Amino acid sequence: MNGPRGPSHGPAGPHGTSLLIITLNGQQREFPVGTTIAGLLRELSVRSEFVAVERNREIVPRARHEVVPLQDGDIVEVVTLVGGGAPEALTIGAHTFRSRLFVGTGKYTTLDLMRDCLDASGAEVVTVAVRRERLHDKEGRNLLDYLDPKRYTILPNTAGCFTAEEALRTARLGRELLANLENAGADWVKLEVLADSKTLLPDPVATLEATRVLVDEGFTVLCYTSDDPIMARRLKSAGAASVMPAGSPIGSGQGVLNPNNIRIILEDLKMDDPTYPVIVDAGVGTASDVAIAMELGCDGVLLNTGIASAKDPLRMARAMRLGVEAGWLAARAGRIPRKLYATASSPLEGTIR
């Protein structure tokens, strides 16, 4: 095992404690100086008997977890056993993720709750609106204090834009902001150009116009659109890296209202490009809505209100995570045919009469 690397010179943490920076399962994370492997696992709420740990390419036996300290710059892998049915990786442009659930950051009652729900959802992509800087909330806190840009890939969106020009300006500002944060999300944008404030339905003409401009400027564009198959086709032709049809109006919680149109979109966009990502965006109210979208064959789901406005957001975040997995598996398992009449599960032969 590699030798000690000397004292950490990382940033100061709460109450002036020094922090060290390690790479954990491919992502940079910060922990207090002096944290051991066992302390790391406790922080992750992971049972040591369920995992194997590698530090700097050498296995750390479980018997030594309590005595092996982390050092600044360590590369740590924590692995476990998983079933063969876990969702395959999803690729959009230059980005690849294991989780197919994208979540938003709005409408939470507290930033602490938002942070915990993001963690419970298992999401790797978090979407944020680009707004004029309000510096801090009334308690002196900033969203980015609760959203680790080293852990999450941030997907900036143009929510609240009602013209192509507004959306273009917002997308460019979002790219600059994330570039300053050195976040991988600097090259992409979730494009929304709304028609009006009552329905929050997309303006198809302005959306198509903005898509063409942003693609020409090198953006990876994920387009919020209606469930119109023809519009979806045009957005893909314009260079959209992903088309994101609404299941139902934003924040309505009605689920997927028109599954037939979603099926047509999937068939059309994937006909000659089976890996082209189609993600249901908006209207999801509960985990069964997520499962239905995935069973239809969608590649992922983006949601916010369904978690943030639930009676118990933390439980709903976990439910949405499981809904994605359940729907993905069911789509590949193949449901039984629907029949008008019953078919007995147990054989009728040999029954006592």
Mean pLDDT: 87
The tally of helices reads: 9
The arrangement of helices and strands along the chain is: EEHEEEEEEHEEHEHEHEHEHEHH
Distance between the termini: 73 Å
Proportion of helical residues? 25-40%
Class by helix and strand content?
alpha/beta
Based on Cα principal axes, name the global outline: globular
Q: Which radius of gyration do the C-alpha atoms yield?
A: 23 Å
User: How many beta strands in the DSSP annotation?
Assistant: 15
β-sheet strand percentage: 15-25%
Sheet with the most strands: spatial strand order: 2-1-5-3-4
Unreliable parts: 1-9
Tell me about the largest β-sheet. 5 strands, mixed
Give a description of the structure:
With 353 residues, this protein is of the alpha/beta class. The chain is 29% helix and 18% strand. It is built from nine helices and 15 strands. Strand 1 and strand 2 form a beta hairpin.
